[in-house]
Amino acid sequence: MDQRFYHTGEFARMASVSLRTLRFYDQVGLLTPTAHTEAGHRLYTDDDLLRLQRILALKFLGFSLEEIKYCLHVGPYDLRESLAQQHSMLLDKQYQLEMVIRTLEETRKLLVANEQDWPAILHVIQVMQMQQNNDWRKKHFTDEQLRQMEALSKASYTEEQRQKLAESARHFTEDDQIRASQRWSELGAELKRLIANGADPAGTEAQALAGQWQAMLDSFTGGNPDITQGLKNYYRNLGQMPESARPMPMPYSSEEWAFISQMLTTYQQRYTS
User: Fold this and answer.
1) Does 265 share its domain with 153?
2) Is residue 120 within 8 Å of residue 114, measured between CB atoms?
3) Same domain, 178 and 249
4) Euclidean distance between CA atoms 74 and 72, whole angstroms
5) Theoretical Cys-Cys bridge with 174: which of 108, 116, 119, 136, CB 3.0 to 4.6 Å?
């Protein structure tokens, strides 16, 4: 079958795009016409139309021009990965927009109650910003995991303790979490080394680790013994859940938990009693 060619105007009408859009896509190398007339006019084919439809679909999904170029040249697997990443990014944008909408709604309520109460309005915005800054957890956990973690928290801490933790968390950023995770990984590696070497939990090396461990715990609990007990409750409750139902894996084995308990008990008896 002979290939059919379309002049720019006809092709633009078929695709419901402007002539300017076609010229731009040609200039940036996104959609180059299959042929040109002797006078230099662009000629498009049905294959070009299919490519344009893919471009428009990816553009609608929020991909940049460079990302669209990449997607047009990759295989199905890479395209699935790109779509998954885009889906995640759009969910983040959706959440940000919802946050802005809630802020606007709260601000409107204040304006109705008191026309020019700017300090109150700024306070609402600051609170919303802090909440948004702390919702980085949504990037690392699913909604179901967050729901389960919330249920665990309610079962492990009193409401007063939860309020204190929430107040501290307002200033705890994603970067803070990354640094804390790295530090816990370092302490965990030292713990495994000591156990592998048959170290005594009351020995010099283990007690040096206990001091660092206690400092990390205190940075979370604020040295509050009630919150410390709540933290113990949290991991006890987590350990009692079926493994497949846990929102996160247990960080340590039974042997490691026993070593930690003996190590910290000795440290607290020696240095904090």
Assistant:
1) yes
2) yes
3) yes
4) 6
5) 136
Mean pLDDT computed over every residue of the chain: 81
Residues 179 and 240 both lie in one domain: yes
Q: How many domains does the chain have?
A: 3
229/124: higher pLDDT: 229
Q: What are the pLDDT digits (tens) for 37-71? A: 989 899 999 889 888 988 888 888 777 888 888 88
The SS3 assignment for 83 reads helix
73-76-77 Cα angle (round to 5): 110
Give residue 28's domain range.
6-73
Q: Last residue of a domain, which of 138, 172, 192? A: 138
Mark whether 165 and 240 lie in a shared domain. yes
The pLDDT value given to residue 70? 81
| Residue-by-residue DSSP string for 155-214 | HHS-HHHHHHHHHHHTT--HHHHHHHHHHHHHHHHHHHHHHHTT--TTSHHHHHHHHHHH
